[in-house]
Amino acid sequence: MSGYSSEEDEDLQTIPKKSEVYLGYVDVAFNKTEDEPTVEDTFVGGQPIWLHHGSPPSADLISCKSCTNPMSLIVQAFSPLEDSLYDRIIYVFGCKNDQCNRKKGSVRAIRAVCKDPKKMEEAQNEQDEEIKAQLQDKLKLDNARNFLFDGNKQDSNPFGASTDSSNPFGGSSANPFGVPAAASNPFASSAPAPTKTEEPAKPSFASIAKQSAPAPKPKTKSTITKKLPEYPGYFLYVDQEKFNKKPAQKQPNLKIDDSALDLEDESNSASGSGSGSAGLSAESQAVSASLQDSTFQHFSEVISYNPHQVLRYEINGKPLLATSSDEIAKVVSERLIPRPGFNPSSERRFELQVMPKLIMDFEDEVNVQGGIEWVTIIVYTDKEDFTPELDDNHVGYVEEWCGVQWEEPITTKTRR
Ligand SMILES: [Zn+2]
Q1: Where is this region: Disordered (predicted)?
Q2: In sequence order, what DSSP letters do the residues of 88-135 get, joined into one string?
């Protein structure tokens, strides 16, 4: 419990030069394109797509625990694990009922897997083929390079995987997932486990598994459950987080008083409540919840580099807390995330986080009475990715841990 050291504190409070986080950005709206989302897409809003059209989750899994009504899909993230051959999706659902804001169980995270042995075998074969093809391509290119440039043109890296966007290995920064064959759907390559782009010879298993699993035809979209109430749907595109460019203008999405950032100084961030809220008096907690909350400042600062992010994905990574003064901050900071009940010997790890810009995208399209009041939704999933039960279609669902940081009064005031 006290293992949350100041070292990590620092880690949370500084802007790293490099990030392993993948960010999701809103792209084309469902109603502005002929394309329908498939299981291999990552998207927000709309109706969920199940891994098998005949295998929706049980109704109670996607019902609000507060009002028991069916919830709405917030995010569906196609996120097969690296080194695995099966399909995997994280769903985040939320209740649209105003009265359920801040209620326990009004936002829930569901993990689905599909371990179809046939598909997995196909994935294995395609993976082997892919590796073979990549090796061959690499050899060819090496030879060509050696021949044309006498080996000294680019750099000493034999794979030449520098920043050359024409690199056939897909190892360029333009395509962090190495899924060049994503065909006409640019969003198919969404939110998998990050791959080491500098190692083109060792492609991400996650990306290969993804390529090999054919998406069900849109027509077979699940009609098993009744249509859920929905938010407007948008495809997401995913890119690695970068901190190099910072827009000069005030961020349109996070309506934070600029003076909040000006208040920050060294002593403030050092004494900030990144971890210590548990030991603080009620009074100092109240202070930390104010604009001087260095956690909130850090949250805003990180977002300001990529202000349109609606999703952060970093398996085994760290969530970005919006405040240090609530229960979720305590649970996350002190690593009190509950073990999965369906796999009690395991633990949970951070996987993804929904960011507040999404609320704007949802609210742009519909008049959300009363409004959405979460700031961020943090999802932790079972480290072992265990799924106790698979149905006849090899699909299984479990509920994962989901921590919601709600708007504090101060943010409510500045947001509206
Ligand atoms: Zn509800």
Answers
A1: 150-225
A2: EEEEEEE---GGGTT-TTSEEEEEEEE--HHHHHHHHHHHHHHHHHHH
Nearest to 91 by CA among 404, 406, 397: 397
Q: Mapping DSSP to helix (H, G, I), strand (E, B) and coil, where does residue 136 land? A: helix
Does residue 145 sit within a domain?
no
Q: Is residue 85 assigned to a domain?
A: yes
Query: How many Å apart are CA 300 and CA 322, to the nearest integer?
Result: 8
User: Is residue 345 in some structural domain?
Assistant: yes
For ligand 1, the distance from its centroid to the CA atom of residue 66, given in whole angstroms, is 5
- Tell me how far the alpha carbon of residue 407 lies from the centroid of ligand 1, in angstroms: 17
Ligand 1 centroid, distance to 409 Cα (angstroms): 21
Cβ atoms within 10 Å of 253's Cβ, excluding its own: 18
Residue 26 sits in which domain range? 6-117+218-415
Q: Which tokens go with 336? A: 């009190």
In a domain, 194, yes or no: no
Angle subtended at Cα 391 by Cα 388 and Cα 393, rounded to the nearest 5 degrees: 130
**CA atoms in the 13 A half-sphere facing the CB of 8:** 15
70: three-class secondary structure by DSSP: strand
Mode of pairing for the β-strands spanning 22-29 and 107-114: unpaired
- In tens, the pLDDT along 5-29 reads 444 444 556 776 778 999 999 999 9
Token pair 């990715």 in the structure block, residue: 385
DSSP 407: P
Q: Determine the distance separating the centroid of ligand 1 and the alpha carbon of 411, expressed in angstroms.
A: 23
At 156-187, the pLDDT tens digits run 444 444 444 444 443 333 333 333 333 333 33
Question: 106 alpha carbon to ligand 1 midpoint, in Å?
Answer: 5
pLDDT band at 387 (very low <50, low <70, confident <90, very high): very high
Q: Which residue has the tokens 């326990």?
A: 104
Q: Are 301 and 15 a contacting pair, CB within 8 Å?
A: yes
Helix (H) or strand (E) holding 360: helix 357-365
Dist CA 140 CA 159 (whole Å):
11
Give the CA distances from residue 110 to residues 349, 411, 415, in Å, rounded to whole numbers and listed in that order: 14, 28, 29
